[in-house]
Amino acid sequence: MKRAWWKESVVYQIYPRSFLDSNGDGIGDLRGIKQKLDYLQDLGVSVVWLSPVYSSPNDDNGYDISDYRAIMPEFGSMADWDDLLAGLHQRGIRLLMDLVVNHTSDEHPWFQAARSSPDNPYRDFYIWRPGRDGHEPNNWVSFFGGSAWQYDQASGEYYLHLFSKKQPDLNWENPRMRAEIYAMMDWWLQKGIDGFRMDVINMISKVPGLPDAPVTGPGRYQFGGASFIQGPRLLEFLQEMKQQVLSRYDIFTVGETPLVTTEHAVAITQEDSGPLNMLFQFEHVDLDRDRREGATKWDLRPLDINELKQVMTRWQKDLEQGGGWNSFYLSNHDQPRMVSRFGNDGHYRVQSAKLLATFLHMMHGTPYIYQGEEIGMTNVAFESITQYRDIETLNMYHAFVEERGLDPHQVLRLIHARSRDNARTPMQWDDSPHAGFTSSTPWIDLNPNYPAINVVAARADPDSIWHYYQTLIRLRREHPIIVYGSYDLICAEHPQIYAFTRTYEHERLLIILNFTAETATFTPPDQLPFSDTRLLISNYPVRPTDDVHRLSLRPFEARVYWLY
Ligand code: NOJ
């Protein structure tokens, strides 16, 4: 396996709107990020991924772009952006920009032109169809609810939008459109960025004819993924992008790819032939949702740790064997806070956040940290729907309460568990009003726990989650085994413990994670011989005399040992 800087990196994701407001308008901005570069350097991360900062009417917080080459005025100017890039590079931190090219905003000049007349040369940059029997061209549901088609009065045709109606899908069949996208990517690379995170990139190729989706759930609109996830021309488009743009730079590329399989992932990330470096897969963050036909992300069920092992092990082994590369995340701007979801955000918040951090950093693949994760920020439970801002959450609330007639309190409980706004409450810097995020009213309320959970408090406590992250990041830099060691699951059936080894040249690490709030007993399998051990890191004080042949692990205890 070849060494590469993007394998050795730790990525920190910034959601700019919620990071730090420097000008008192309640919205995070680029100068705010610039003020925290020393913070990121102290933490030790080597790459920053910025969620979109381009011009946007903010129907989906910047994932609806109206100008790919301009900065959203709320976030600052291009000069502020240049300054930010310079500041990152001075500190040896690289920058990934978010590339959102499955769709644009409906306010993008291309779409404005496309909409102006069916003969406009930009018309074919988007996907237009006539209606069928007085209805939409097919039965696809949008990810944000309702039909994936919007009627255009002027032309009497519909346009496709897999996300909101203000996010029309681009038509990747059109070579002129693709050339424009590649030119735009090249423009950013020329400005000196270090790579891209590619939004829902495995949805850009649609099956010709856009056939109806099979009916699997209630209602008129159905999930059409079979016609656009990993579509027929996806690899061809990505290879073209690689050939025309990506291969000309030494960059980092990660594709966001819902519902991707390991087989697809190998084809896309294969070290020599694949177009991208790595992907975000979603299987592990789907394990706590009901997967019966017709169930949605709002239908929950408890996480089964043995399923987690199976899924993770399949991803680890299949990509290792196929010559691909994994990425690994437990939280991002679309997911609930990981400590509330997979750990325990009450009594064991600190221990379980550290356990999850150990899991994140000890897997084979590039780890991603989402802002606030390093201080163990938790989900929020706003009392009123008026406190929520996320389009997906608001659409769901109205559909569940007004159309399905569900009890609003019950719907709020689902939102507390799953809403994307859990991740989007402002970063908690200190215990001053608004947590030091802004001097005025924040665009979304803070999590009221900020007086206790904040960066100042975490950095003052040597035993904090923050310092634990700092140590894990340093260990990755010091020990190639953490980056390159091959992964093997042990104790596959243990009901509480997730344990595995990493092996590299003559070294071996043993990672033992008690995923439960009860004590658990660990005994290594006979096939794992060792005569001596040395502790690398743990989230509780550990006696050096402990015998690893029989350990009693405390709630959410995590230990990593060298084996000899
Ligand atoms: C995935 C992004 O992460 C999410 O925030 C966004 O809503 C959709 N793609 C649409 O761009």
**Residue share in helix:** 25-40%
Structural class: alpha/beta
Ligand types: 1-deoxynojirimycin
> If you compute it from the alpha carbons, what radius of gyration comes out, rounded to the nearest whole angstrom?
24 Å
Distance between the termini: 24 Å
β-strand percent reads: 15-25%
Label the overall shape.
globular
Concise structural overview:
This protein has 564 residues and is of the alpha/beta class.
Question: How would you explain this protein's 3D organization?
Answer:
The chain is α/β, with parallel strands linked by helices and 564 residues long. It has 16 helices and 20 strands. The chain has helices spanning 5-8, 30-35, 37-43, 78-90, 109-116, 175-190, 234-244, 262-269, 305-322, 338-341, 349-362, 391-403, 408-418, 455-460, 465-478, 480-484; strands at 11-14, 47-50, 54-55, 67-71, 94-99, 128-130, 149-152, 157-160, 195-198, 252-256, 278-280, 327-329, 366-370, 486-490, 497-504, 507-514, 520-522, 533-538, 551-553, 558-563. An eight-stranded parallel sheet has the order 11-10-9-5-2-1-13-12. A five-stranded antiparallel sheet has the order 14-15-16-20-18. α8 (262-269) runs parallel beside α9 (305-322), α11 packs parallel to α15 and α12 packs antiparallel against α13. It starts with a helix and ends with a strand. The structure holds 1-deoxynojirimycin. 1-deoxynojirimycin is lined by residues 60, 63, 100, 163, 199-200, 256, 333-334.
